[in-house]
């Protein structure tokens, strides 16, 4: 008898934990009833989905569900359950909007409207523009160094941070790419790739800020500075991917790393009186304000533009200014070293 009581207690406790962890949208009884009905009938109202046609043994009547859609839509891999959740979500949001209620989250996500199977089209477009801006900045930096600035007699570059900025450019483009992929289709794999690439970029940016601001040029010293930070970032990424994708903890880590590097850059620009310090200060202030958009989460306007989309939009001009500063820094340091040689 005691075992039965304990079993009942744990069942009830697990249910309560599940309800507490659920978002307001997917905890809605009407939403859940809609999803259950859709999975049985394959329809939400008058809209029906061909990949929800199943036989009594659970097999699809017309072959694999992804073969029942037009070729240009098969890439998105929406199955019966995800389509039911999506259209039930839209129906519930329309009903609540008619009653004057605002949007709520479903399964931890704001309700976005798809465009040709793309979950967050505005964020995807802005991530692509952000990637293009990084590529433009990195390419112009490459051309400046290898085709315009003078070199040493042994053909090596005067600028000691060339390789570090090349890695930064590649990590930045990688992060933008996976951001676009994640916002086009949110699944477990794309989410982890997006978060991991973003954390890797942030961690490396902090290392780069320390090395440049303290003018660390010796390779052994660079390794000593970078090693503990690389170990921490690697551990954090492994934690997110293999133990728990803790959004709150990840946000705290990213904010601390972001604020630390912004302060380092701002103080260094002021202390050294770098000729292009105003560009760096614009990036620092703009980056700090943009970071607030990531922290202050609000529902998407008209189902398309949310806080992250605004963040992507603000980082595009900041990226252009940052690469402009990087090129100025390369020219400034090269000129100073040439004067010392002469």
From TrEMBL:
Keywords: Golgi apparatus, GPI-anchor biosynthesis, Membrane, Signal, Transmembrane, Transmembrane helix. One of its GO terms (cellular component) is Golgi membrane. Residues 1-22 form the signal peptide. One of its GO terms (molecular function) is hydrolase activity, acting on ester bonds. It is a multi-pass membrane protein. InterPro entries: Per1-like. The keyword Transmembrane helix applies. Pfam families: Per1 (PF04080). The chain crosses the membrane at residues 124-146, 158-181, 193-211, 223-241, 247-268, 280-296, 308-326. It comes from the Eukaryota. It is found in: Endomembrane system; Golgi apparatus membrane. GO terms for biological process: GPI anchor biosynthetic process. The keyword Transmembrane applies. Its main location: membrane. Belongs to the PGAP3 family. Involved in the lipid remodeling steps of GPI-anchor maturation. This is Post-GPI attachment to proteins factor 3. It comes from Nyssa sinensis. The lineage of its organism: Eukaryota, Viridiplantae, Streptophyta, Embryophyta, Tracheophyta.
